[in-house]
Amino acid sequence: MFIFYIPYFIISYMSNPVYKIAVVRAVRIRNITLRLLQKDLVELKVPKRTPHKHIQDWIEKNRQEIIQSINTLTSKSYFVHLENNQPIQMLDNQYTCLFKYSQRNKVNIRHNLIMFEINDTSNLSKLIKKLAKKVLINFVENISKEIDISFNKLYIKDNVSNWGSCSSKKNINLNYKIIFLPKDPAKYIVVHELCHIVHMNHSPNFWNLVEKFMPNYKLIRKTLRNKYRNIIIQPPQEFINVDKTENIYKIYS
Asked: pTM above the 0.85 mark?
């Protein structure tokens, strides 16, 4: 899918901006969709050839529904705040994030320190994926040994609709945001995918195997649905560079 960004729109109450809308032109979609990216930033995905005027008119016509949808999405999201020299929890372990402005765009983890070298937040998700691979490889291998189910390869992805998947080749795919979960929910997700190596379905035999290793899995699934369905990563404010000074479209309530 090819994605093209055009200037941001702003939904405002009177003269105070509430939300920025990043309009994304995508090739393989037919309908307009809305996705929360940050507390004050949403992505409006539209078909590639949608005229700019049509987008403006659509936002103006649906501004109240958009605000209501954003509020609903915000209330159902779990926010991870990344701030310079501030602590963060990953799999029940506490780390301190250090951010340095650099064109190198890299991340390293040493003991309890996570060091980001980054120029703006457009590269942050890529760096967190790299961080997740470093953190999750040992995490998954240890669980694999614990339950005695081996896997082939581990892939870290930006899954939108699920936490992970398992292929017939015994490859495990995990959502990179798993690292921001508490340890037990993250372990359940890994156990779930490893059990698919034995049962490539959701049959009673599959769930019995999951329950063997995670007796409280039903409670954990409920927690994942209710609290962690949508994890939003909030980058440090000093590295956010999304505002455009011209062609900003404002909606007033």
From this structure: no
